């Protein structure tokens, strides 16, 4: 289900912000990954607009979406898709909600269950580290194709999970060399399907009302409770 992809993407967005430039060329992939991790731990909040492309390899179909995302430490997220259909993902201190207004459906998850999974969801709670959970590369077979697609203005890293899961067998991140800010993320699943997100108009460390990370299903909404696990 495409809704499952949402959870993976927003975590990558939250984990890989950096505000330092790439620096000297002799920096290894692992050194850069460590710098990314340390910078992420200092970020209190961020807001950004996003464009998302979900590619189905079998059918060749590409699902394009646009919206906004807000993040607040510790581990609170509001991901709002505005086009072509409205969908809202809210992660609070205890529960995560995926709300589809047109279907009058709200999916409820336990945050602790999400973070205890072996996916990179654990990054958002500070329970995982790039170098511990991934093989990080700056050059690999086929790297030029990714770099060409994203343009020469990005430093591109490949992340290979040491314990792959069906929803995540490989990931790529693109970072601005001058500002060190993450701009692009792509996740590839077991079937070769791609989930690509580009961030724009990024604002760091601004104030949000706590209410943004709470969700109360409207009257008449069907609630699918997944708090006992998947």
Automatic annotation (TrEMBL):
InterPro entries: LolA/LolB/LppX (IPR029046), OM_lipoprot_carrier_LolA-like (IPR004564). Keywords: Lipoprotein, Signal. The keyword Ligase does not apply. The keyword Signal applies. It comes from the Bacteria. Gene3D superfamilies: Lipoprotein localisation LolA/LolB/LppX. It holds the Pfam family LolA. The lineage of its organism: Bacteria, Pseudomonadati, Thermodesulfobacteriota, Desulfovibrionia, Desulfovibrionales. This is Outer membrane lipoprotein carrier protein LolA. Residues 1-23 form the signal peptide.
């Amino acid at each position: 289900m495409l809704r499952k992809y949402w959870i993976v993407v927003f975590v990558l967005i939250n984990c890989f912000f950096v505000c330092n430039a790439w620096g000297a060329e002799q920096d290894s992939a692992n050194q850069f990954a460590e710098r990314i991790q340390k910078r992420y731990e200092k970020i209190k909040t961020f807001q950004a607009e996003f464009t998302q492309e979900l590619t189905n390899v079998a059918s060749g179909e590409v699902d394009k979406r646009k919206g906004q995302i807000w993040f607040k430490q510790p581990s609170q997220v509001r991901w709002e898709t505005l086009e072509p259909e409205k969908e809202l993902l809210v992660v609070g201190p205890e529960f995560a909600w995926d709300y589809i207004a047109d279907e009058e459906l709200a999916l409820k998850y336990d945050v602790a269950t999400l973070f205890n999974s072996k996916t990179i969801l654990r990054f958002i709670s500070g329970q995982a580290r790039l170098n511990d959970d991934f093989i990080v590369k700056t050059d690999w077979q086929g790297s030029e194709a990714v770099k060409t697609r994203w343009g020469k203005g990005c430093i591109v890293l490949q992340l290979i999970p040491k314990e792959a899961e069906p929803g995540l067998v490989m990931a790529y991140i693109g970072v601005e060399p001058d500002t060190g800010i993450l701009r692009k993320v792509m996740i590839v699943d077991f079937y070769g399907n791609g989930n690509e997100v580009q961030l724009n108009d990024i604002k760091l460390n601004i104030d949000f009302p706590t209410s943004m990370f709470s969700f109360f299903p409207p009257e008449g909404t069907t609630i699918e409770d997944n708090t006992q696990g998947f």
